[in-house]
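Budget justification aside, the reviewers requested a transparent look at the raw inputs and outputs of the sequence design task funded under Objective 1. We therefore reproduce one unedited record. The lines immediately below are the structure tokens for a 786-residue chain.
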């Protein structure tokens, strides 16, 4: 009995020691550049516990006081292992080297990393920047958004466009973040190119559903694009010279291991190419024609490491499109054009409060502005002058601040919480007129005045593991103050992942979302003149809920397969009333021109991806249905949304023949877009009008989007020839867009043809023709790194 009591007493005294735990924490970074490694894996082989790094490379893993064998791994890098006796809280900052074959300086992806069936998050895709750069694109311009269009559940707005339509949503329902700052217009050259310079980008993540609670403010997707931090070890550069633009990126230390800077610029030179052509065409004319036709991007980032616990980042982006024509002669001059662009900046402070708690505080600024300009002046022989100028301008401006906390109390829990506030200023569209003649001057402003709102949010979420079940559970609360109205929304989120035998994961998610700002745009064509407006007392916030379920597994040598089905219901989606747009009636309130209704989208997505080996790529397939319904459109009947497509298929293949030559191809197929075609016409008599007299014909009728364009398909190819020089790498890229010259429809043109009748006479009849604008387009570019 005494021996038993002694044994129990010994066990009781030993329990605190057995229960004692310590925390291993630190940062994972690229050994060559000092760049943080996002979502890198930290795994203890003995306890079978692990965690991942956050977006700043920080990790924390709490384990029992015992022997540990920690593996640090990241895709594309050689893994590192540390084995030791964990007796106290330990800091381990790990630098990982790229996985390099010794005989050739070629980076190969390591098979280390979290497998698709191990992630609790579903409906999320991270696209490596190197994979984005490999994809064949229009005119050889590497484009982040065009690569994302090749993923299942994502559609483009049309031929050559960079717009994203995700799971039945519209462009304003995508929250696009560059270093955590919203970008309101993501396109250059009327949507042909995006504003993101891939040379300055570190990683790209698209979330289509199952949204974690830390995200909010949009219904359809979250696109996170993070810029490189800047090399802390040595100076490097890369760039390209292409057919339509050139770019250059430089990064390096101001003070080694302490302060770094990155600057990146891109500019088109279409105006330089067209200038001599225009001059030659007008050399016999008395008119002097000048054009401005270009776009540019500029990125900059500064980071400073005070110590292991405090880091400061300052980043900025400035980009714009400039289209302007000026025609002058001895007596008259005319100028007109359209300019638009984004300006954003962010100041971030990282604070490692302790070895389990990490904080990031961010202050941001974002502005999008559009200007449409028309000017005319005349000089007469009597010395008098007349002038006229009109300037339509619109935009949105944000000032915002937020704080986010990462708390890792134990291996089975990753808790995130935080909040923030944004002040919005809207300029919904105004027309400035300035007219001068005969010593008189008329100057006025027509249109909406500025509007203001405040948006705030708080959230909490926990990424937890309970045996074979992983779950991300969270709650997002938001509020919106506009005028005398204050809207609130409480949005529960949950994502589940259960691992079956043979490493098959069953996944499910449910998320509700609310959106307080809206983009007024035409279904037929997206222009930079589209207007950003707030929810008001009359315009209710957009809301949605989405449920998804699927399965995922990794087969053989790293072939990932996922299958998902989803259903999304949207409330208070916004659209122009039939016949209304920003172009007419600027003196009227924009709220009188819009209507709100319901949206519904559902479908299934298949994604097969091979990440390793000489041949890599993916297959994506989407089967979907997408509808809208408004009381004041289409007689209140439900109709297919403009971008309702039954089938979307994309196949992307990259093959390395050797270390110097690689070939990439992308083939896409999509059901034709839904369009509205007028089905009858009638004459109208304008006699008695103050402006018109005579007869005209009005076309009308037809169900909304009841017809389909021809199905879309296209093949793009790209050949890369790389040579490793002594101090730099050079690459020639030869590409061809629409390789077999398929005439894909861009829009439908209503016309009239003379058609011979049975009696031999000819009768004029209406016809509709599909117009294609992008033929087969070859390209060549020269890329370099040093």
């Amino acid at each position: 009995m005494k021996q038993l009591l002694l044994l129990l007493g010994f066990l009781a005294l030993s329990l605190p020691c057995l229960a004692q735990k310590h925390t291993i924490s630190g940062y994972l970074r690229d050994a060559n550049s000092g760049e943080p490694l996002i979502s890198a894996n930290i795994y203890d082989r003995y306890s079978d516990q692990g965690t991942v790094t956050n977006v700043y490379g920080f990790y924390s893993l709490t384990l029992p006081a015992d022997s540990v064998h920690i593996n640090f791994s990241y895709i594309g890098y050689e893994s590192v292992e540390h084995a030791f006796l964990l007796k106290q809280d330990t800091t381990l900052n790990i630098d990982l080297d790229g996985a390099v074959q010794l005989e050739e300086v070629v980076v190969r992806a390591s098979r280390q990393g979290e497998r698709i069936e191990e992630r609790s998050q579903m409906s999320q895709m991270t696209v490596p920047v190197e994979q984005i750069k490999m994809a064949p694109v229009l005119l050889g311009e590497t484009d982040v958004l065009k690569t994302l269009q090749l993923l299942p559940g994502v559609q483009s707005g049309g031929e050559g466009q960079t717009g994203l339509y995700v799971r039945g949503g519209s462009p304003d329902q995508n929250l696009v973040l560059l270093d955590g700052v919203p970008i309101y217009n993501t396109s250059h050259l009327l949507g042909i190119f995006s504003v993101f310079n891939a040379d300055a980008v570190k990683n790209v993540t698209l979330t289509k559903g199952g949204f974690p609670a830390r995200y909010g403010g949009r219904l359809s997707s979250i696109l996170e694009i993070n810029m490189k931090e800047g090399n802390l070890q040595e100076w490097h550069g890369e760039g390209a010279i292409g057919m339509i633009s050139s770019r250059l990126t430089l990064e390096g230390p101001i003070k080694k291991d302490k302060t770094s800077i990155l600057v990146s610029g891109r500019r088109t030179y279409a105006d330089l190419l067209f200038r001599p052509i225009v001059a030659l065409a007008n050399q016999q004319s008395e008119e002097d024609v000048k054009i401005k036709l270009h776009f540019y991007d500029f990125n900059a980032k500064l980071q400073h490491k005070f110590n292991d616990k405090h880091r400061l980042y300052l980043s900025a982006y400035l980009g714009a499109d400039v289209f302007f024509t000026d025609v002058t002669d001895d007596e008259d001059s005319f100028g007109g054009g359209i300019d638009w662009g984004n300006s954003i900046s962010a100041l971030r402070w990282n604070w490692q409060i302790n070895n389990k708690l990490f904080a990031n505080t961010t202050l941001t600024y974002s502005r999008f502005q559009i200007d449409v300009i028309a000017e005319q002046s005349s000089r007469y022989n009597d010395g008098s002058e007349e002038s006229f100028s009109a300037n339509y301008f619109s935009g949105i401006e944000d000032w915002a601040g937020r704080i986010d906390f990462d708390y890792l109390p134990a291996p089975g829990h990753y808790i995130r919480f935080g909040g923030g506030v944004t002040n919005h200023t809207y300029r919904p569209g105004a027309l400035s007129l300035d007219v001068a003649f005969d010593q008189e001057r008329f100057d006025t402003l027509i249109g909406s005045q500025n509007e203001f709102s405040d948006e705030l949010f708080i959230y909490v979420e926990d990424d937890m593991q309970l045996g074979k079940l992983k779950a991300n559970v969270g709650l997002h609360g938001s509020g919106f103050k506009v005028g005398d109205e204050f809207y609130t929304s409480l949005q529960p989120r949950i994502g589940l992942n259960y691992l079956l035998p043979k490493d098959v994961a069953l996944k499910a998610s449910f998320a509700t979302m609310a959106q307080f700002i809206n983009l007024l745009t035409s279904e037929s064509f997206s222009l930079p003149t589209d207007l950003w407006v707030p929810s008001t007392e009359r315009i209710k916030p957009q809301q949605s809920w989405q449920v998804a379920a699927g399965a995922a597994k990794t087969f053989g040598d790293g072939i990932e397969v996922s299958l998902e089905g989803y259903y999304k219901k949207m409330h208070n989606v916004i659209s122009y009333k039939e016949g209304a747009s920003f172009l007419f009636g600027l003196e009227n309130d924009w709220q009188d021109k819009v209507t709100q209704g319901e949206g519904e989208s559902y479908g299934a997505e298949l994604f097969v991806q091979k990440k390793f080996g000489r041949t890599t790529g993916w297959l994506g397939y989407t089967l979907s249905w997408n509808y809208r319904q408004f009381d004041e459109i289409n007689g209140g009947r439900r109709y297919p949304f403009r971008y309702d497509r039954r089938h979307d298929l994309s196949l992307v293949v990259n093959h390395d023949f050797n270390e110097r030559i690689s070939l990439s191809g992308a083939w896409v197929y999509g059901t034709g877009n839904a369009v509205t075609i007028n089905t009858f016409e009638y004459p109208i008599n304008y006699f008695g009008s103050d402006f018109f007299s005579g007869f005209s014909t009005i076309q009308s009728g037809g169900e909304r989007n009841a017809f389909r364009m021809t199905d879309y398909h296209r093949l793009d190819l790209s050949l890369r020839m790389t040579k490793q020089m002594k101090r730099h790498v050079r690459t020639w890229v030869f590409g061809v867009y629409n390789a077999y010259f398929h005439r894909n429809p861009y829009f439908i043109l209503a016309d009239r043809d003379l058609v011979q009748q049975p009696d031999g006479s000819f009768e004029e009849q209406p016809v509709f023709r599909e117009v294609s604008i992008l033929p087969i387009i070859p390209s060549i570019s020269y890329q370099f790194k040093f």
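The domain at 124-673+709-785 is CATH 2.40.170.20 (Maltoporin; Chain A). Residues 3-18, 100-112, 686-693 have pLDDT under 50 and may be disordered. Computational costs for records of this kind are itemized in the attached budget.
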